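User: Predict the structure for this protein chain, please.
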Amino acid sequence: MSATGGGATGAHEPDGFDVRRVVQVIIVGRGGEGWRGSGYRVSGDTVLTAAHVVRDAVSVTLRFLTEDGDVTELSAEADPVWEDSEVDIAVLRMARDVGSGELYAAEVPPVRFGRITQPVDCESLGFPKFKLRLEIGSSELNRITQYRDSHHALGSTTPWADLRKGTLEISVSAPGSDPEGRSPWEGMSGAAVWSSGYLIGVVSLHHATDGPGRLTASRVQRWYRRLSRAQIDELSELIGLPTRAAHLTRLPPPPVQAPPADDDPAEALAREVSRQWRREEEQRRVHDPFPLPLRFRCTDRDVFDHWASIRKLPSGAVAQPLPLDGELDQIVEAYLSVPSCRLVVLGEAGAGKSILTLRFLVDWLDARAPGDRVPVIFSLGSWDPAVTSLRGWMCAQLIRDHPFLAARAEHGGSLARVLVDTDRILPVLDGFDEIPNGLHGKALEALNKATTMPLLLTSRPDEYNRAVSGPERSDVLTAAAVVELEGLTVEDYADYLTRASRPVRGGGADSTVWDAVLARLRERPSSPCTANLAEVLRTPLMVSLARTIYSDVPGQDPGKLLEFRTPEDLQDHLLAAFVPAAYQLEPTDDSDADGSRRTRTRHRRRHWTPERAQYWLGYLATHLAELKTHDLAWWQLGTAVRRSTRMLVVGFLAGTALGASTGIGNLPVDLIGTKHRPGFAIERGLLVWLLHGLVAGLVFGFVYGFLPRGPASKPSTLRIQLFGGVRQDTSEIVRRFVLGFGFGVPSAVVLELLDRFVIGPLGFDDGFSGGLRGALLFPAELGFGAGFALAIMAWLETPIDTSSAISASDLLRTNRKNAFVYMLVWLLVLGIPAGIAIGCSPGPVGEFAPGPVVGLLAGLTFGIEGAFGGGLGYGLSFTAWGQWVALSRMWLPLTGRLPWAVVAFLDDAHERGVLRKAGAVYQFRHAQLEVHLARTFQERRTSRRSDSPIMAEREPLVTESASP
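Assistant: Here is the predicted structure, written as structure tokens:
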């Protein structure tokens, strides 16, 4: 590492260390005393130095050196244009002195700033006292002058020294002792510290106890923790400092790797996660008008591990706490400062934990380099640690939300499993408190088994504290630091609510509907009603609800918020008023990640009344409470219906599909292939419809109701692709064939017995039974046909690609397409062999000789019966899409519990901010809103049932109205 002389590559290109921009700062104080320091020119007219160097200065002179040793001096404003004594940095403004035009004309590229994550080499150029030299003038003048020459200090530093103070400890070659007993490093203060061409610190005061071989520097990375948002913005304008710590260049840089392949699953996942959550951040209006200023601090609760374990120190080392206090946009920097890479964030309900995880994910992805871990948000409420391992559950969630990860990896296992096992995923575990009661201890045990897994976990404080210190008496989360979110103050949200409201102009200054309320909060904070409002608005959730109700909806007066006697009453009011307010507003446009507008619900925009919307949302919230989850999945909506009802609905639809297809399919056969009258064909068709449908309904209904609901109840994360793609294992294809054969043969036997021993004796034998040969061939054909149909489908299935982020609607459409392809495959697999076999039969078929016409007729009949009877029956009973159609698209809307356009309603609720998207599922924007809606729904249902005995037997019928 060495200083560069040229460096300037253009006025707008960031540059590294340039000796021509190093400055000696010469100070004259109030008492006439003088002292020296160092600095670095960071822009055309500003110099970065240490704050203590220019403290109490009345005169400042800047001395520039060249590589040839020439000196240029000019003055600077005595008062720094910016300074902060806590981080010990200051910015000086250069004056335009006579003769400094050439210096000003020189191009000054921006400085590059960095952060260190491992020990690195570093350098600094300054003017310390031990470089004091004598210069003897000409013999005529006989004058001796003193000056300080430059010193290029080469050394090393580490991110793990001086953690509590937050400074850099720089190891350098020690100079000799000072004859006056002063520090030999006097005058080095203010010098910029560089590593790999990036500015990582500014030399600060030298501590005598460190010895002459150690320098202390103000660490750039720590500025984001110690300075306010406004101060960082000011520094960004003055010296080009990035506005976020995550945008600092990481040092040392990651190893040079070949560019990731286009099919690298980690990079594909990073792109998809970025698209998904940036869109969600926009939908949640996080930046409208600006993010609320969330703050966090090290918790005072006894719920964290030993600091030595958190800092990964060797045995016997004395550990000091890490300074982890910060603001929302500093969460990545706080996480990176934890050597164990395990951080817990505690916060009360609505305190902003989900927004913090979203900010963490987006900022991490902004600074992420190829090969880094990919942050993925996992909602812990769906994890049962008593049943599923942490890594297994994470893999299942990844495949659910990102189906392309279901593809098999080169060495076996899914891509999701490979990413988890090779530490390519950074789990952001949101909602530890949402794990079912009694399982928090097991969850902590599972997390502690993965001691090397980096993670960020969020939880409410009480639930986490009980898991650690309560009856479960679990251990703390190993090596994890714990921070806690602080509540908002009136100054935090006053400007937010004001700028989110429509300005009222007239005469004087602009005003808003919030002015009187905010004035009351500032002037009378102790009055009961005002204190209640201040208590409720401590959480970002309640602030955002208040904004929607009183800022977004015209004509609302927030003065009503000062009328509630308790914080609980006020909170209930905001929760109750939110949904009606949201449905008085037009939803925002929902565009795909590539900017194209979604058109499936735009052609006919539905407008649901607030009352109906609240009822349906209450039903959905109750459904989630019964499932003990917060994930609203379309394939689980029907599970809220009683098992017996589900069996009847599925059996009825499956039986109707099979009965109708076989009954109708017999009509052309009997009309053309026999000499019976048309009435016979119709009567026989109705009988076949009835009996086949009854048997099929009973079989499908009982199979649906009593077989374990395994993968069949989950949506397929695969799509149908004829050519290309990653195919299923041969074992899966064989398994599907065996399943189809095992189901087809008994079904055919039952239908054959029904035709021969029920329909025939009733006088409806049409002569197409085929005798003994037919009795043997039909079960074989149906068994092999069903087996081949399922095997072909298994062969056609390939994981969904990564061209666009998956959503609930995307997954639903894919499953619907798969179901129709299933029907087509059943038609071909059953129809073609039947047509060939009957068309080439050596003997007569009914009244006809074998031939192509008979073969075509038979093939078409068997194909249609197979498509609608086998394919549709199988789809309704054993696929998520079929159960969705039967229960969520038919039964639940028919009984008034959901609208007919369920997906359009869910999408609309998401656009209005009532729901949020988390991969392939929806969630209510907050658990508090979900609980409130479920409680309101239950109270309404209980009231209706108590008023009318009829309501005890069925749900109230609510019809949907839609307008274009």
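The two ends are 68 Å apart (CA to CA).
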